[in-house]
């Protein structure tokens, strides 16, 4: 078989996507709420797509530790005590989400 010109072979990427962090995991809304909580503020991250309860609990624990406050996972939303929108946004961005500060 005759040898073809040097650039004729198709280029195949050797980079693998497995094991790398997904940097486009979707939009997440971050809202500060005070309703029905005795006037105390709570920061809520909601509208997660394609993420299980175990991963939400893991993210909640990471955010709690970084902020030094308590929190929980309720009805598919992560609730953190206090107005911690900026810290929550930073951690969710590192996790590959696109956080949006929604509401007032």
Q: Topology, please?
A:
Blueprint: E1 27-33, E2 42-46, H1 53-67, E3 71-74, E4 77-81, H2 85-94, E5 98-101
Parallel strand pairs: 1-5
Antiparallel strand pairs: 1-2, 2-4, 3-4
Helix pairs in contact: 1-2
Oligomer: single chain
CATH architecture descriptor name: 2-Layer Sandwich
What's the CATH topology label? Translation Initiation Factor Eif1
How many alpha or pi helices?
Answer: 2
Low-confidence regions: none
**Mean of residue pLDDT values:** 84
Radius of gyration: 21 Å
Beta content comes to 15-25%
Q: Going across the major beta sheet, what is the strand order?
A: 3-4-2-1-5
CATH superfamily: SUI1-like domain
Structural class: alpha+beta
**Briefly, what CATH class?**
Alpha Beta
Shape: elongated
Largest sheet: 5 strands, mixed
In whole angstroms, the N-to-C terminal distance is 70 Å
The portion of residues assigned to helices is 10-25%
H/E element sequence = EEHEEHE
Number of domains: 1
Short characterization:
By secondary structure, this protein is an alpha+beta fold. The chain contains two helices and five strands.
What does this 3D model show about the protein?
The chain has a five-stranded mixed beta sheet, with helices on one face. It has 104 residues and is α+β, with helices and mostly antiparallel strands. The chain has a single domain, classed as Translation Initiation Factor Eif1 (2-Layer Sandwich). Helices cover 24% and strands 24% of the residues. The chain is built from two helices and five strands. The mean pLDDT is 84. The radius of gyration is 21 Å and the shape is elongated.
